[in-house]
Amino acid sequence: MTWNRQDITSWLLREGPGMPHLEALTYALADKLSEVGVPLWRLRIAMRTTHPLVTAISTIWERETGPQEVFVSPHGLEQRSSFAGSPMARISQTRAPVRQDLSALTPDHHLAFHELRERGATDYLGLPLIYGDHLSGLLVAVSDAPDGFSQIDVDGLLAITPVVSTLVEVRRLTVLSKAVATAYLGPLTGQRVLGGDITRGHVDHLDAAILVSDLRGWTQLNTERRVEETVAIANAYFDILDDAVRAHGGEILKFMGDGVLAVFPVTEARSGAARNAVAAAQQALAQQDGDIQFGIGLHIGNVLYGNTGSERRLDFTVLGPAVNLAARIEALCSETDQSLLVSAEMSGLLEEPSLQVGEFALKGLPGMTPVFAPSSRG
Fold first, then answer.
1. Which of 63, 194, 273, 303 has its CA 20 to 30 A from that of 105?
2. Whole-angstrom distance, CA of residue 97 vs CA of residue 91
3. Helix 22-35 vs helix 5-15: angle between axes, to the nearest 10 degrees?
4. How far is CA 172 from the centre of its chain?
């Protein structure tokens, strides 16, 4: 059956920019190709990403089942035996199309071909999606028709790949920007930056519980252990804090050397943010072990939340006396042999009574400041 590749190209240019993600593009393109008579049984579009945890994202459509679950490939994919020598590996390495008659396989052909053949596939066409000087992704079309794809089908699919490459690249960059913003700024702050909140000096007032934590014995660890070991310990500590903070509605704003700064915004009552911060602190502290010992200081107050820095280098952070007080309180943990200390303001918002550890002269603050240790139940 003859189909007009220009019609598909025009449709992609017209409708493609409005498709919100890679899944929508894959499924709509598969439906459109099937509608015009391409003997398509399976369509896969894979997209390279720059992400701390993921190296590629694939979306798959099959005629019998329609959309499949999004397939996420973690880092290290290239070293896996299942990927090495595969058709997708060949396309990635050569940036050239791969065509395979699946009815003429030998034991030397890659397992991926045999698995498709066992499911009734007859023809495989893998195409590189090249944008500029790099490979943006891959498009894999598989047929189960007795004669596979015709030359018209192959030429047509080759002809539409430049447009598909452009659409995939746009989505790749969207995923990249969100991944970088989330990984380096956190989900809430990252959304603000991507939303255009990037002007130096643009700050908002935020009422929040503030958590400051510091890893104990860091200097000694760096002296006694190999660099690789100390980095592993620091990462394990950061994982503990991040899991606990996220679980209770907070967000880590900064990893500061061997320390952490996190906030729990007040959404309704201040007592809710205070309880969340204490619960997160107690969850994290319960996971201490021989190498990972740390203190946590908590306070609640109004902070300045936004962009500060030089003309060329900005930082999205929280500033103000409330942050300074949380940091001063945390510094008392080792002095008082306490893992968790809170301010009087925090203590007054907790349901369970707290023990007053003492009153302390804190740098930059007038008079004596009372500091409390919350009960284990918060």
1. 63
2. 6
3. 150
4. 13
- Three-state secondary-structure class, residue 158: helix
Q: Where are the domains of the chain?
A: 5-185, 199-373
Compute the distance between CA of residue 129 and CA of residue 164 in angstroms, rounded to an integer.
7
**CATH of the domain spanning 5-185:** 3.30.450.40
Cβ(135)–Cβ(168) under 8 Å? no
Helix (H, G, I), strand (E, B) or coil at 104: coil
0.70 exceeded by pTM: no
CA-nearest of 204, 206, 205, 201 to 308 is 201
pLDDT 10s digits, 212-228: 999 988 888 888 889 99
| 63 Cβ neighbours under 8 A, 6+ residues apart | 34, 40, 41, 42
- In this predicted model, what pLDDT tens digit does every residue of 330-358 receive, in sequence order? 999 989 999 999 999 999 999 888 889 99
| 46 CB-side CA count, 13 A | 19
Q: What distance in Å separates the CA atoms of residue 137 and residue 164, rounded to the nearest whole number?
A: 10
DSSP states of 187-254 as a string? HHHHHHHHTT---TT-EEEEEEEEEEEEETTHHHHHHHS-HHHHHHHHHHHHHHHHHHHHHTT-EEEE
Read off the tokens for 300. Answer: 């609640």
Q: What angle (nearest 5°) sits at the alpha carbon of residue 313, between those of residues 311 and 315?
A: 115
CA separation for the pair 293, 222 (Å, rounded): 14
Which of 3.80.30.20, 3.30.70.1230, 3.40.50.300, 1.20.1250.20 is the CATH number of 199-373?
3.30.70.1230
